[in-house]
Amino acid sequence: MIGKRIHELRLQKKYSITELAERAGVAKSYISNIERGIMSNPSIQFLEKVAESLGVSMDDLINDPVQQEQDEKLDRQWYELIREAMASGVSKEDFREFLEFNKWKMQNKN
Question: Which 3-state string (H, E, C) describes the chain?
């Protein structure tokens, strides 16, 4: 996931792997391996160098702001749904029973 994010940001800046490697002071083979998912756990020092070279914060490097916004919207939707259920008188036990029934229904669909 971090490799995909680095790749996206690198392309946005129109940097080649060689150019990013030179700017960050890291091996281009290492960036290539991260981007292709061959290596998936880069060091903090590597991430700091790459973030600085790409002109983004560590947070923006690690977390895709678009995905983060979508997750927050989904969380708000779930929260609103729960509040609506509570306001209509649905108890926690009723909700649990519904979930269990739904799981059972999905498992026995065949």
Answer: CHHHHHHHHHHHCCCCHHHHHHHHCCCHHHHHHHHCCCCCCCCHHHHHHHHHHHCCCHHHHHCCHHHHHHHHHHHHHHHHHHHHHHHCCCCHHHHHHHHHHHHHHHHCCC
Query: Are 42 and 2 contacting, i.e. CB atoms less than 8 angstroms apart?
Result: yes
Tokens of 58: 């560590």
pLDDT digits (tens, 9 = 90+) for 55-83: 999 888 888 766 667 777 777 778 788 88
Burial degree of 14 (CB within 10 A; 0-12, 13-18, 19+): exposed
Per-domain residue ranges of the chain: 2-62, 65-107
Chain segment 77-101, per-residue pLDDT in tens: 787 888 888 888 888 888 888 889 8
Task: Indicate yes or no: pTM above 0.90.
Answer: no
* Domain spanning 2-62: CATH 1.10.260.40: yes
